[in-house]
């Protein structure tokens, strides 16, 4: 993906990027770096889109994968807000920019004012999912946390996340296949933490690459301006918490 982190548009400082349809579909389905897929798990406005069946299917699958990954990291019972917060935070797992440069309340700030929009985005998937009991009126959900239920969920995760989990859990020299590793993880009380580590292993190198690309394509001056705005935002968030 070619990125230019900052440019002016209608008097506002914005980020934009250019990506091929094939690379976009690949990330949506497999979470190769979770950069674009992660953004499209949150609220976006599609201004124009050609009738592309493969792309529309990949966009839908990305949302389903986000729900499944979140299920694996949540307890047996939880609220809509818990779910949407977990989903919105998937692409920030392991992102070094969340340590320096981002408001720590960023994920909650995305979810809390937009609960109705998140329901619109994910409601149909939750209603149709056999993995969850979704009580929309109460805003509560229950999922199957049995090893069998978790194994089913793990087997439907995007390929790159499955491979990262396998890499984390497979002892040196063992060379187990992915399915065998996922079966073991499904029986592990720390299953959710393992999934989180797998996500971090995808996001961390991707976030570093994107930041480096940003400096190279936008130039040092623009990147410093953009970073200073991020730091100011983070500082304001910290002040709100301490006041």
Automatic annotation (TrEMBL):
Organism: Odocoileus virginianus
Entry cofactors: Mg(2+)
Membrane topology, from the record: Peripheral membrane protein
Subcellular compartments: Mitochondrion inner membrane
Family the UniProt entry places it in: Belongs to the TAM41 family.
UniProt-listed InterPro entries: Tam41
Gene of this entry: TAMM41
Ligase found in the keyword field: no
Function: Catalyzes the conversion of phosphatidic acid (PA) to CDP-diacylglycerol (CDP-DAG), an essential intermediate in the synthesis of phosphatidylglycerol, cardiolipin and phosphatidylinositol.
Pathway stated in the Swiss-Prot or TrEMBL entry: Lipid metabolism; Phospholipid metabolism; CDP-diacylglycerol biosynthesis; CDP-diacylglycerol from sn-glycerol 3-phosphate: step 3/3
Enzyme Commission code(s) on record: 2.7.7.41
Class in the EC hierarchy, top level: transferase
Pfam families according to UniProt: Tam41_Mmp37 (PF09139)
Protein name according to UniProt: Phosphatidate cytidylyltransferase, mitochondrial
GO MF annotation list: nucleotidyltransferase activity
The keyword Lipid metabolism is assigned to this record: yes
Primary residence: mitochondrion
Keyword terms of this UniProt record: Lipid biosynthesis, Lipid metabolism, Magnesium, Membrane, Mitochondrion, Mitochondrion inner membrane, Nucleotidyltransferase, Phospholipid biosynthesis, Phospholipid metabolism, Transferase
């Amino acid at each position: 993906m070619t990125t230019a982190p900052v440019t002016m548009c209608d008097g506002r400082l914005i980020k934009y990027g250019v990506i091929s349809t094939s690379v976009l579909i690949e990330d949506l389905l497999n979470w190769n770096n979770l950069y674009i897929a992660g953004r499209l798990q949150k609220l976006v406005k599609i201004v124009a889109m050609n009738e592309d069946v493969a792309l529309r299917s990949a966009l839908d699958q990305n949302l389903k994968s986000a729900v499944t990954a979140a299920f694996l990291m949540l307890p047996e019972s939880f609220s809509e807000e818990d779910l949407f917060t977990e989903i919105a935070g998937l692409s920030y797992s392991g992102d070094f920019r969340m340590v320096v440069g981002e408001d720590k309340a960023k994920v909650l700030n995305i979810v809390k004012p937009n609960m109705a929009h998140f329901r619109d985005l994910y409601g149909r998937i939750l209603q149709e999912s056999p993995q969850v009991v979704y009580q929309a009126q109460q805003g509560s959900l229950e999922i199957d946390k049995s090893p069998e239920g978790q194994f089913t969920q793990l087997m439907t995760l995007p390929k790159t996340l499955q491979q990262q989990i396998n890499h984390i859990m497979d002892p040196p020299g063992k060379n187990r296949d992915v399915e065998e590793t996922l079966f073991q993880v499904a029986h592990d009380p720390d299953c959710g933490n393992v999934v989180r580590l797998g996500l971090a292993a995808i996001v961390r190198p991707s976030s570093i690459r994107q930041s480096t690309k940003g400096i190279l394509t936008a130039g040092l001056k623009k990147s410093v301006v953009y970073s200073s705005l991020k730091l100011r935002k983070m500082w304001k968030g910290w002040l709100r918490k301490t006041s």
